[in-house]
Amino acid sequence: MRFRFIEDRRADYPVTIMCDVLGVSPAGYYAWRARPESARAAANRELVDDIKRVHRDTNGRYGSPRVHAELRAQGRGAGRGRIERLMRRHGIRAIMARPRWVRTTDSRHDFAIAPNLLERNFIAAAPNQIWLADITYVETDQGWLYLAMLMDLYSRKIVGWAMADHLRAELPLAALAMAIATQRPGAGLIHHSDRGVQYASAEYRKMMQSAGFRASMSRRADCYDNAPMESFFTRSKPNSSITSIMRHVRKPHVISLLTSRASTIERVATRPSDISVRSRWS
After folding, report:
1. End-to-end CA distance of the chain, in Å?
2. Which domains does the chain have, with CATH numbers?
3. Which one of 59, 83, 177, 190 has the minimum C-beta count within 10 Å?
4. pLDDT tens, 33-67?
């Protein structure tokens, strides 16, 4: 499956990088590629061509059930499960209407809510005294991608970040772990976020307590209590290189390919609207 993944995406990414990320050798991949095509592989290749034809003829509106029905009507015998697997493997999917916005904060939970320690006093006397946390979303070619960030209120620098195709607590936890590892703040730092279930979860609170942080949360449905972070997302996302890179991420497993090699996303200018992505491919 790993060699098939590399083969399907060799036009988009360097083979050596994909082999390194997936833990296989380039020699093994090329040996696999040189093997004679099996009868099953040849049949799958022909079936994929038929699937692509039906998908193209219907302007991308058909998913696997309707593609299966159309192929059966044309006398092409193939199981629905097989068609579904091949469509998923080759990234063939029906065009779906997307919501115009995504809700990233779910405060309907039973976890403890921290008091608002900032009270909209967005002033820090030194670095690593107050961090602001939030999650935003970016539309990609095949769905929504979620980006969790932590900002140092003093420098307005992004000190931690993570991205994924889900909104589980692991997403902001990864950003928090990055910030702690790179900044090494002392105890007493104020961590301010919204009331989302990710930030109120036991796992997130445990990591903050281990680092000696003081939790602070905004009032319910009040974006102004985290205004610097909201402003940062609003001003930087529409035209930033973060958006241009992530808009073309096609599959969740490509996220790991990008994040495993991207060295830093860092604040490089004096204005909150200026952010760059520095990627170094080794």
Report:
1. 24
2. 2-89 (no CATH), 130-278 (3.30.420.10)
3. 59
4. 888 878 888 888 899 999 999 988 888 888 889 89
